[in-house]
């Protein structure tokens, strides 16, 4: 069944105001009266909805659905600005894998240089990608997107004590040295709803100065298996590992 995210509260009847959503519903999918879809509102609850009036773009809410596919912990993926369209790829895939927030920052060794104006357009594009991926993967929430123009602003987020329960830095030097337990130890014992931040470097990795800064803020350095992963692959590995450790073992 097709799923759509609708901004606002779940009050029946629902009128679809967003033009792109409406176009997909009634022109692409050609919904007609009495057809049913799943609508997800700001509260993250899925609801079965039936088309009342095609011309008015109105739906009747039928019932709440007991379907929550979110990870048991809230995961923020933070990546140093990667080259090309890799951030678009990362946003799509980590949304499918359950990330709750997607951040990116100008790392010391980032080749990509994006100013404020370009960042604004980038955010808009990433938000559309995350929305589409969230609908496709039947998420209950759409990840929020935040791109930092200055690394200092990103580092300031790490000083907010209630922001995250655990910060893990994917560090390839740890993998090269054979470290194999830090990731497992870092996620063991996390309570449901805990907030976890994963930090990843761009293509060139994270600089020694950045690693020092992250460690000073209480971050855990962890290798992601014995192989060195690309910048766009590492976040996918981390989220997949989390799913296995926190969801599939039950």
UniProtKB/TrEMBL annotation:
It holds the Pfam family PUA_4. It is found in: Cytoplasm. Residues 18-63 form the Ribosomal RNA small subunit methyltransferase E PUA-like domain. It catalyses: uridine(1498) in 16S rRNA + S-adenosyl-L-methionine = N(3)-methyluridine(1498) in 16S rRNA + S-adenosyl-L-homocysteine + H(+). Its main location: cytoplasm. Its EC number is 2.1.1.193. Keywords: Cytoplasm, Methyltransferase, rRNA processing, S-adenosyl-L-methionine, Transferase. This is Ribosomal RNA small subunit methyltransferase E. It comes from Streptococcus mitis. The lineage of its organism: Bacteria, Bacillati, Bacillota, Bacilli, Lactobacillales.
């Amino acid at each position: 069944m097709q799923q759509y995210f609708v901004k606002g509260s779940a009050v029946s009847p629902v009128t679809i105001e967003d033009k792109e959503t409406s176009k997909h519903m009634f022109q692409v999918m050609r919904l007609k009266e009495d057809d049913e879809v799943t609508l997800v509102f700001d509260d993250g609850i899925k609801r079965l909805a039936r088309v009342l009036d095609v011309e008015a773009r109105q739906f009747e809410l039928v019932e709440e659905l007991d379907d929550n596919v979110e990870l048991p912990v809230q995961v923020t993926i933070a990546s140093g600005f990667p080259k090309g369209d890799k951030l678009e790829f990362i946003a799509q895939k980590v949304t499918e894998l359950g990330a709750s927030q997607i951040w990116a920052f100008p790392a010391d060794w980032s080749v990509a240089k994006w100013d404020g104006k370009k960042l604004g357009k980038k955010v808009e594009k990433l938000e559309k990608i995350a929305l589409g991926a969230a609908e496709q993967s039947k998420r209950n929430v759409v990840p929020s997107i935040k791109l930092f123009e200055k690394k200092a602003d990103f580092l300031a987020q790490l000083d907010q004590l209630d922001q995250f329960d655990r910060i893990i830095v994917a560090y390839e030097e740890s993998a090269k040295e054979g470290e194999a337990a830090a990731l497992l130890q870092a996620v063991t014992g996390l309570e449901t709803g805990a907030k976890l931040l994963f930090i990843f470097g761009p293509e060139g990795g994270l600089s020694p100065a950045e690693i020092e800064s992250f460690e000073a803020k209480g971050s855990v350095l962890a290798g992601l298996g014995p192989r060195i992963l690309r910048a766009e692959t590492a976040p996918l590995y981390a989220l997949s590992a989390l799913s296995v450790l926190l969801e599939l073992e039950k």
